[in-house]
From TrEMBL:
Keywords: NAD, Oxidoreductase. Residues 50-330 form the D-isomer specific 2-hydroxyacid dehydrogenase catalytic domain. CDD domains: HGDH_LDH_like. The keyword Oxidoreductase applies. Residues 125-305 form the D-isomer specific 2-hydroxyacid dehydrogenase NAD-binding domain. Belongs to the D-isomer specific 2-hydroxyacid dehydrogenase family. SUPFAM superfamilies: Formate/glycerate dehydrogenase catalytic domain-like, NAD(P)-binding Rossmann-fold domains. This is D-isomer specific 2-hydroxyacid dehydrogenase NAD-binding protein. InterPro entries: D-isomer_2_OHA_DH_cat_dom, D-isomer_DH_CS, D-isomer_DH_NAD-bd, D-LDH-like, NAD(P)-bd_dom_sf. GO terms for molecular function: D-lactate dehydrogenase (NAD+) activity; NAD binding.
Length: 332
């Protein structure tokens, strides 16, 4: 991804009021602290996610940066508006953890960030390859010192049709990678395009279906029970977008019944409070997740596709850029 060069603030707009950065891990914090002095930005950084308890850390500031791991609730948005915050930059491509319309009613603008699409695209291809080569079952057997080959041979991508739902930056990067494998690729998107097919055609024709569309009211449970039933028998579902794009219970039912051949999911409905935590000594209260983990043809990872050093640099840079641009527009 090409990054925009920002001139020193002294040559541009009045000095910003500062930015409060919430939910910031150590590696993120190091990048924020490195960039801030160069641009003359006073920062308050906390590893704690934004909440009603720490909202006053943003007092006197018009802009804040938040992570995607914790929902920003209505009471928190109301509290932000009362102390003068007017812009929230979420360090994610998706907005599903923030009610953007409610924020707008309060006079708060919400902006997302672009980051390297290669992070998620690479991970998506990895999950596809793992799924068609039965990697989960192979590694489980190897871990128990069973080194026999599987009874089921793997498949090669060049022999398959892959359906890509959502042809934005990440979906397009996935298509670019798939081209190198020589497989047939179909795309479906809400935006018009001569090369897109209908969603129904894609579902009925694809051996692998991968999801890269934003989560909205219209795309919630985009793959519901009816659409999963219309998928090709033995098809594999890959999701590195948002968990609620799929009716998870319907997906698990189709896997357990043998209608689908597998699933590789980096995101899951109900992941909040489970993913990004150590649950080895605490019960997991998500029945669908537990059912999936018992299936040899279901691969689960904890919303990690974006997690690369390059994507992190982009995320920090563009979150700061969002806030600076808002400040500059406000002062112009």
């Amino acid at each position: 991804m090409t990054q925009t060069t920002i001139a020193p603030l002294a040559a541009r707009a009045p000095r910003p009021t500062g930015i409060t950065v919430y939910g910031c891990a150590d590696d993120e914090a190091a990048l924020f602290r490195k960039a801030a002095p160069r641009w003359g930005i006073p920062l308050i950084i906390t590893e704690l996610p934004l909440s009603e308890e720490n909202v006053m850390l943003a007092f006197g500031r018009r802009t804040i940066s938040v992570g995607h791991r914790t929902p920003v609730t209505h009471p928190v948005l109301l509290a932000l508006s009362r102390i003068g915050v007017r812009y929230v930059s979420t360090r994610s491509a998706g907005f599903d953890h923030i009610d953007v319309e409610y924020a707008a009613q309060l006079g708060i603008t919400v902006g997302n960030v672009d980051y390297s699409p290669d992070s998620v695209a690479d991970y998506t291809l990895m999950l596809m390859l793992m799924a068609i080569r039965d990697a989960k079952a192979v590694m489980r057997r190897t871990d128990s010192h069973d080194y026999r080959l599987s009874r089921h041979r793997g498949r090669e991508l060049r022999d398959l049709t892959v359906g890509v739902i959502g042809a934005g930056r990440i979906g397009s990067a996935v298509v670019e990678r798939l081209t190198g494998f020589g497989c047939r690729v179909l795309t479906a998107d809400t935006r018009p395009g001569d090369d897109h097919v209908s969603l129904d055609h894609l579902l009925a024709s694809s051996d692998i279906i991968t999801l890269h569309t934003p989560l909205t009211a219209d795309t919630h449970h985009l793959l519901d029970a009816a659409r999963i039933h219309r998928m090709r028998p033995g098809a594999i579902v890959v999701n590195t977008g948002r968990g609620a794009l799929i009716d998870t219970d319907a997906l698990v039912d189709a896997l357990e019944a043998g209608h689908l051949g597998g699933a590789a999911l980096d995101v899951l409905e109900g992941e909040h409070g489970i993913f990004y935590t150590d649950r080895r000594d605490r019960p997991v209260q998500n029945s669908a997740l537990l059912r999936l983990q018992h299936l040899p043809n279901a691969i689960i990872s904890p919303h990690a596709a974006y997690f690369t050093d390059h994507a992190l640099r982009d995320t920090v840079h563009n979150s700061l850029l969002n806030c600076l641009t808002f400040e500059e527009n406000e002062n112009s």
